[in-house]
Amino acid sequence: MDFKDILNRNIEKEFVSLGNNAEEELLIDINRYPSIIITGETGSGKSILLDQIILQLINKYTSLELGIIPIDTSGVELNYYKESSYTLFNAINDEEKSIVALTRVLREVERRKDLLKEQGVTTVKEYNKVATSKLPLLLVAIDDDKLLLRNPDMEKLLSGIISQLTGLNILFVLATSDVHNKFFERDNNTLASILISFDYTNSLESKKANIEGAQDLAIGEFLARKDEKVTKYRNYEFDDNIIFEVLSK
After folding, report:
1. I need a surface site. Which of 41, 79, 104, 114 has the fewest CB within 10 A?
2. What are phi and psi of 15, to 5 degrees?
3. pLDDT in tens, the chain (249 residues)
């Protein structure tokens, strides 16, 4: 299926499609699944999936309803969104800014929890029904080329964010080629609502992939762990020109 077909459908704002197979589509409610970790070798398709998540949300939300924090240590994959009206704070090709950005996100997590407590509600959806100032969806989109996760402060910062996202109208998506970092070895990946693996090569190192069997995948295929069930899917067909088409709307 072509990704344009996904963009042209009329589905609820809270849902994004991550891929499909012959039997089903991987359609997720971001309120129920607020964190996605995508791992894989360079060129396997993980950055394309990250783009597809971002573009689906931009296609459905206005810049008042959605704020994006793009974090990209390579300075390449998320550069398209650097000047977007949706972007609140970008950390493109700047590791120090990445830490600043994630620290801000953690503070926003804590701020939103306090606001919900003050209103006596448990989710931002409930909060927005009674508050005069609405809390927009915040998308934290990270594309890391092994630099970020190897920072000694990162494990605590990332796990602190991921573990508190339920009901806060924040979607956290991390795409990384650092598949075997201690961040994953210490089971922090189990905090993620959805874990996706594009680890398709047959090298000895990739046999330690986060999901068993991922090393046998073809390029563009991935395994997704959702609700403890692991299923194989494929990326949608994608052309970079779609990025410019969506951003120019």
Report:
1. 114
2. -105, 140
3. 899 999 999 889 999 999 999 999 999 999 999 999 998 877 888 999 999 999 999 999 999 999 999 999 888 889 999 989 999 998 888 888 999 999 999 999 999 999 999 999 999 999 999 999 999 999 999 998 778 888 888 878 888 899 999 999 999 999 988 876 777 766 666 778 999 988 765 554 544 556 766 667 888 899 999 998 999 999 999 999 999 999 987
Q: Which H or E element spans position 247?
A: helix 241-247
Spatial separation of the C-alpha atoms in residues 89 and 102, rounded to whole Å: 10
Which residues in the chain belong to E strands, given as ranges? 15-20, 25-29, 35-39, 66-72, 91-92, 137-144, 170-176, 194-197, 221-226, 229-234
Q: Which residues of 100-113 are buried (b: 16+ CB within 10 A; e: fewer)?
A: ebbeebbebbeebe
Q: Which two tokens stand for residue 27?
A: 């359609």
Place of tokens 């190897």: 150
Cα within 13 Å of Cα(198), Cβ side: 25
Give yes or no for a contact between 105 and 67, defined as CB atoms under 8 angstroms apart: no
